[in-house]
Design a protein that fits this description.
Order of helices and strands: HHHHEHEHEHEHEHEHEHEHH
Catalytic activity: L-proline + a quinone = (S)-1-pyrroline-5-carboxylate + a quinol + H(+)
Shape: globular
Number of strands: 8
Number of helices: 13
CATH class: Alpha Beta
CATH architecture: Alpha-Beta Barrel
Protein name: proline dehydrogenase
Oligomer: single chain
Pathway: Amino-acid degradation; L-proline degradation into L-glutamate; L-glutamate from L-proline: step 1/2
EC number: 1.5.5.2
Largest sheet: 8 strands, parallel, barrel
Bound molecules: flavin-adenine dinucleotide
Helix content: 40-55%
Strand content: 5-15%
Keywords: FAD, Flavoprotein, Nucleotide-binding, Oxidoreductase, Proline metabolism
């Protein structure tokens, strides 16, 4: 990553947190057009169509309702209802999908007990439907609280119904991976998408990648069904190589990727017989999610800028 890339990544991640820009930005046509590559629609029905298309290609899905701007306990109730509607719709449509949930959506920044109560309702509903809730990981300020809640839910509902996410950019992650694997918590391993300081996160991409490989090995050695979430072919090759060395069969773990990113790679892995799950976000509040996707690949930003200039 060049110094310019580093700067635009930090700037985009800063902008992703500026709520006042959201309404203005989401009305701009070129911005909306570009976002539609990464977001499956603004409504549940649009997203269900995207899930059906992915299922038809042999991929499973983790569904995410976007809304990081939840401010009141009432709004957190709406999110719980939205997730219950999603779980019901998944059942009714007979699609192969589980759900991903952010604890800030459940009120983690308002009150930890409220977030636990709300998440508990979603996981209880998923358990009744024999489904699974992946608790997304957000900024490092909430890492510990998020893992505390995952552990409580895991103790109550068990391995098949709730799991965690770990980010390899965090210095603490290898230890978290070892501890969660001992407790048989299912993990999605990713690099991490937020703006973090060098005190908690590795500033150099090479260190983030090396930690990803170390943590991937911890996961694959654990005998638990985990998700390796990356579009980085070097990380994927390292995983395939390690799995072969350990004589792990295809299906001992799954690859996970984001909707709209590296579709060629998604299809190639399915063709080679690997389970692939696609993270499918939908909803009206797509601005911060979209900005994080721009930050991951500054070339995306120049594409948006070109279209904005052209009108
Ligand atoms: P990178 O080194 O960033 O990218 C490798 C290659 O992938 C790039 O060269 C490019 O070809 C392609 N690529 C990556 N991103 C883009 C993009 N936006 N647009 C176009 N091409 C791209 N992060 C969290 O912090 N918390 C979560 O809960 C979380 N959940 C995730 C769930 C899934 C299924 C996935 C795949 C990612 C998730 N992430 C999450 C995001 C993750 O942390 C990274 O920010 C993101 O995946 C990019 O990292 P990478 O591993 O693809 O590697």
């Amino acid at each position: 990553m060049t110094a310019a890339d580093h700067l635009s990544r930090s700037a985009l991640l800063y902008l992703s947190r500026q709520e006042h820009l959201k309404d203005w930005a989401t009305r701009l046509r070129p911005f909306r057009d570009m976002a539609s590559r990464f977001i499956a629609g603004e409504t549940l029905e649009e997203a269900v169509e995207a899930v059906k298309a992915l299922n038809a290609k042999g991929m499973t899905v983790s569904f995410d309702h976007l809304n990081e701007a939840v401010k009141t306990p009432e709004e957190t109730r709406d999110e719980v209802l939205q997730y219950q509607r999603m779980l019901a719709r998944i059942d009714q449509a007979g699609v192969k999908a589980n759900v991903s949930l952010k604890l800030t959506q459940c009120g983690l920044l308002i009150d930890k007990a409220l977030a636990l109560r709300n998440a508990r309702e979603v996981v209880a509903d998923a358990t009744r439907r024999d489904s699974f809730v992946r608790i997304d990981m957000e900024e490092s300020a909430v890492t510990q609280a998020t893992l505390d809640i995952v552990r409580e839910l895991h103790a109550e509902f068990g391995e098949p119904h709730v799991g965690a996410v770990l980010q390899s950019y965090l210095r603490r992650t290898e230890e978290d991976a070892k501890a969660l694997c001992r407790e048989r918590v299912r993990i999605r391993l990713c690099k991490g998408a937020y703006l973090e300081g060098p005190d908690v996160a590795f500033p150099d991409k090479a260190d983030v990648d090396a930690n990803f490989v170390r943590c991937m090995r911890v996961l694959l050695d654990s005998g638990v069904y985990h998700g390796i979430a990356t579009h980085d072919e070097r990380m994927i090759d390292a995983t395939l190589e390690y799995a072969a060395k350990q004589h792990l069969p295809r299906g001992a773990y799954e690859f996970q990727m984001l909707y709209g990113i590296r579709r060629d790679l998604q299809e190639r892995l399915v063709k080679d017989g690997h389970p692939v799950r696609i993270y499918v976000p939908y909803g009206r509040y797509w601005y911060p999610y979209f900005m994080r996707r721009l930050a991951e690949r500054p070339a995306n930003l120049w594409f948006v800028m070109r279209n904005l200039v052209r009108g």
